[in-house]
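@channel sequence for tomorrow's demo:
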Amino acid sequence: MTTLSLLSTVLLAAAQAGPGVGLYPPVPPGERLVGIAYSTWFPPVNWGSIWGTPELGEYRSDDPAVLRQHAEWLAYAGVDFVWIDWSNNWTHDPGLEGKAPVLKENGERFLAYRPDIAAIETATDRLFEVFATVPDAPKVSIFLGYQEDVEGIHDGRLRKKFDQVYRDYVQHPTYGPMLQTYLGKPLVVVYLGTPCRFRSGVPDWDDDRFTVRWMTGFITEQHNLRDADTLLSKYGYWSWEERGDQTFPVHDGRPESMNIVASWRMQAEPGQPGYIAPGLRRDGDTFRERWARARAIGPRFAMVVSWNEWTTGEQPSVENSKDIEPSVEFGHQYLDLLKEEIARFKGTD
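structure tokens (generated this afternoon):
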């Protein structure tokens, strides 16, 4: 047995003693899927505040050469789909370009054309174009949401974004088949901010053209959203990020999704109430441990966060970062590790 195989066996044995293991039958390995969070925001987000240096340099997210390389790397690793971060965008209406914002009765902006969000969406179009030409490229899911103005769920703005996704991608003859489906429909996850403003269930909203799932972050610390003993996500929320053992929702009697990170940020400051130390990369061991728990629980979806955020807001340092994209600092270490862990998760190693 190789050293890495022995390590994997040890980590899995430890994970099998973790909370919630065995509570529900696992999804068969051959039916499991791996998604990875993907950002198309360079620019408008600039490269002035990042934790490290991409191997590809300070690229543009709409650069076909960059998109092709990303598709090839992700295909090499066995990633099933990218979920593209539009999670701050339901106040943006591309149809308002060159027009005045639509205002609420109190004068606040209801909808407006935002050049920064428009650039993210345009780069998404380029990604579809390029991924369509790359053999075995991952499928695509659009990650919607908004962190503060949750009124958009019921005042028509979220529906308008779903209409946009349906019009531009689902109905597109080339892009439609590229979308990741779940339960027979395109999968759309909607982010509701952290902490979640909906504390006793998911929003009373749906779109029957899609399979809709709701997401928040650090469910491990949102005690009203998870069971303390099993870490079951009570209302079906998927998690953007976790500290330590991950939570998991259940659908149709089986674990549905689980977050995977290479590192996590600390909570509060040392000596303050609620302080939780950061989970550092530890030469890949944090990443391996999160995958070992995923194998022990057996969810249908392993949701890796993230491929290429790069900004220091969620990744304060090299060792306390979580991007998987090849970098000057780590080379291809985490891309290769991603490939190994996906194979273990799916039982193809």
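heads up for whoever presents: The first strand starts at residue 33 and ends at 38.
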